[in-house]
Amino acid sequence: MTAETSLAKRSAPGMGRRRRLTIAGFGFSLPWIIGFLVFMAGPIVVSLYYSFTEFNLFQPPQWVGLKNYVSLFSDDRFLHSMFNTAYLAIIGVPLGLALALLVALALNFPVRGQPLYRAIVYLPAIVPVVTATYLWRWVFNAQYGYLNQLLSHVGLPQPDWLEEPFWTKPAVIIIMLWGIGGTTVIYLAALQQVPQQLLEAAAVDGANTWQRFWNVTWPTLTPVTLFQLILGIIGALQIFAPTYLLTQSRLSPANGGPGDSLLTYAMYLFQNAFIFLKMGQAAAMAWILFVVIGGLTALILWSSRRWVHYGAE
Amino acid sequence: MSGPVLSRRRFVGLSIASAASAGVLAGCSSGSGGKSGGKTTIKFSYLWTGEEAKALQKVVEKFNRSQKDIVVQGVSNPDTQAQLASMTGSKGAFDISDNFGNATGDWASKGIIKSLDDYIKQDKYDLSDFAPAAMETVRYQNSVYQLPIAVNNSALLYNKSLFDQAGINDPPKTTSEWASAIAKTTKSNSSGISQLGLCGTSSAGIDYQTMGVCFGGKWYTNGKPSPTDPGNIAGAQFYVDNVLKKYGVKHINRFASGFGDYQSPQNPFYQGKLAMVIDGEWQPAFIKNFAPKLEWGVVSVPYPDGHPELANTNLVSPGTFFIPSNSQHPDEAWVFLKYLVSTEAMREFTLALSNLPSRTSLLKDKAYGDIPNFDVFLNLLASKNATSMGSNPDYTQYTADLTTAADQITRLAKTPAQAYAAVATKAQSYDS
Predict the structure, then answer these.
(1) Domain containing A245 — which CATH number?
(2) What pLDDT, on a 0 to 100 scale, did the predictor assign at position B129?
(3) Which of A41, A187, B128, B375 is the most buried (most CB within 10 A)?
(4) Is B11's CB within 8 Å of A251's CB?
(5) What pLDDT is attached to residue A255?
(6) Total Cβ atoms within 10 A of residue B117
(7) CB B315 within 8 A of CB B389
């Protein structure tokens, strides 16, 4: 008996067990796999085909090649929607992460009533987006809104938040920042993983608060930050509900707010699909968004090698 | 009480349209009606809700009582996306439904709705009683695809008390009188506006489409969008010169941000914040409900100086009934459709909604006499200057672009001529 056959005999039961486990695993996953293939993978593939056609739901799709993709880039509203979405993502997401981290650090202090403060910060995250947005419409009211009243008390100018194109996107970012409860809670959980002995050692070595944060706390938080950054960017690039609700007005389903300043990518995609019935163009938009999100995610993951620290690194 | 209510409720559907794909599946999986007890059951899905739905249901019940062969099942579903989704499959979820006339071109060109020509020919159905402006919107390529029932149009509503305070004895007839009335009824100073002569009820903008036709403009010429028609530009320019530039967009925006909900006692016209508004024939019923003590009057939108031939111009938009192409019982649906737009049913339904009847024979009907100031709207519909936006396949895209132009005009970002020229450029790339 050679060493190989002996090894093969010994490993055979192990391989059988592994195969059985694999089959069982697939068995348990099968409902999801079938659901994915039928309800997601199928439509995804079909949408790719539609993106090269003119299709209005009621007549057979007509192949038009790259026309949908090409025409989008000469469409003012498409370009506008890209700019608006990029604005919200580039400014809103980092600002949201920074604020959530600050709030998490504050909530991590062992003070009296800490659980209550944590609950208060998380509360907006469970308010339905429609309710919250309609409430914010009143907060932003130029004449009677709380925000402008507050600004007038401190002697600052009171903008027409929802009427002036310059101010509409900052208004949406304020709403986004109000809802950072979920991000804060994740940061708070991550803060519990910061090695106390390292913080104490740094303190003994004479490191000040900032140095302890930057050299000990922040590296520990970078994996969580990477996760939240990717999710935040994906969410911001698909933002729909707040901007849609802020721009709704009577008899105007294809609205984009003053100067189309709130027309986000997802809103314009929706308008193309369900108001103008241009399913081909909407599908092309969806694929462009998919590629952009994929590209950005890859870019962030690639860059993470330089700024994300795992475990014992 | 249907004009904006209908529209609003119909557009409510859009807010939940992200679930449209689910609607498609639902629509595909359910058939409409069938045979039961020797009678054919047809499904009537309508966008009206609340009181309007109740009024319609009464009409349905009356029809059912009169029938030996057909039973109508009425279902209120205000979701326009679900309505559209239900018409995608081969087996329709309903046999007859409602929308607006301006959907005709878009839907007919896509084969969504059935031409009624064969039925009309077969029954020698008389269309001559329907208001011509309403019929304009239900035709596509000379075929009739829908029939109108409740018509919306607009006129100039004014607050009598504010007119008295300003020393104005008669409502304006011409645009120069109108400009003067706006100036006299506006109260503003450097800190802002406390009362405005003319404005929209929800924002600083106004109904520029009505303004355009009242200044002699046409939004379509020979079936093609004509946004740069001089009348359209002049209509918007009048508002720009006499309101937006004169009192400042910033001030007006701030003033308008304090307007209450349109369909409530806080409507700025009911509150005396606006002396004049361009609004629809549903307002008599609304005012009775929300501001019964308001002293108000209504006249047609003033005509440009020196152009009395444009007096009584008004823009008409009818609510309509149609049979979807995938109806399982189109013949029975036609029988019911005829009943819905019959004189008796139309009178009952439009009275309940305080909308205008689309039949000219009803425009002088005494039944409408109890609704205050309704006669003005009825006469406007009867006027030779009643017109419509028509119903071309590009209507949705065109009106969306006009909305963008309206926004630019209201913010003074572009002059009316510039804004409409941009729409004209875009219109060249419309598919139809």
Answers:
(1) 1.10.3720.10
(2) 97
(3) A187
(4) yes
(5) 86
(6) 13
(7) yes
| Closest CB from A59, A160, A271 relative to B111 | A59
Beta bridge partners of B320: B99, B148
Question: Residue A273 CB: number of other CB atoms within 10 A?
Answer: 21
- The answer to whether residues A222 and A143 belong to one domain is yes
**What is the distance between the alpha carbons of residues A66 and A79, in angstroms, rounded to a whole number?**
18
Residue A286 confidence (pLDDT)? 98
Please name the member of B111, B202, B253 whose beta carbon is closest to the beta carbon of A142: B253
Per-residue model confidence as pLDDT tens digits over A118-143: 999 999 999 999 999 999 999 999 98
Residue A29 has pLDDT above 80, yes or no: yes
| Chain B contact probe: residue of A129, A262, A277, A279 with most B CBs at under 10 A | A277
**Six-digit token string for A106:** 């504050």
Residues 6+ apart with CB under 8 A from A291: none
All structural domains of chain B: 35-151+319-388 (3.40.190.10), 154-280+394-427 (3.40.190.10)
Domain match, A251 and A174 both: yes
pLDDT tens figures, B220-238:
999 899 999 999 999 999 9
Specify the residue for token string 């099968």: A30
Question: Do both A46 and A76 map to the same domain?
Answer: no
Tell me which of A53, A250, A268, A270 to substitute to probe the interface with B (most B C-beta atoms closer than 10 Å).
A250
Distance from CA of B60 to the nearest CA of A (A): 28
Confidence category of residue A254, pLDDT binned at 50, 70, 90: confident
Angstrom distances, CA of residue B365 to CA of B131, B348, B368: 15, 12, 6
**Chain B residue numbers touching A274 (CB-CB < 8 A):** 14, 17, 20, 81, 84
Chain A residues touching B400 at Cβ < 8 A: 254, 271, 275-276
A chain contacts of residue B200, beta-carbon cutoff 8 Å: none
Crossing angle, helix B343-353 and helix B330-340, to 10 degrees? Answer: 70
Query: In this structure, is residue A272 part of a structural domain?
Result: yes
B positions 213-252 inside 8 Å of A (CB): 250
3-state SS record for B339-398:
HHCCHHHHHHHHHHHCCEECEHHHCCCHHHHHCCCHHHHHHHHHCCCEEECCCCCCHHHH
Domain containing A45: what range? 2-50
**What is the percent of chain B with per-residue pLDDT over 90, rounded to a whole number?**
83
Looking at the structure, do residues A179 and A126 belong to the same domain, yes or no?
yes
Give per-residue pLDDT as tens, A273-302.
999 999 999 999 999 999 999 999 999 999
How would you class B132 by CB atoms within 10 Å of its CB: exposed for 0-12, middle for 13-18, buried for 19 or more? middle
Q: Which residues of A touch B14 (CB under 8 A)?
A: 253, 274-275
Q: What is the pLDDT of residue B205?
A: 94
Phi and psi based region of residue A228 (left: phi greater than 0; alpha: psi -120 to 50; beta: remaining):
alpha
> Which residue among A58, A252, A253 places its CB closest to the CB of B112?
A58
Indicate yes or no: CB of B11 within 8 angstroms of CB of A258: no
Residue B254 touches chain A, beta carbons under 8 Å = yes
Please give the model's pTM, rounded to 2 decimal places. Answer: 0.86
In this structure, the answer to whether residues A140 and A188 fall within a common structural domain is yes
User: Do residues A290 and A144 share a domain?
Assistant: yes
SS3 content of chain B, % helix, strand, coil (to 5): 45, 20, 35
Q: Are residues A233 and A287 in the same domain?
A: yes
| Global ipTM | 0.83
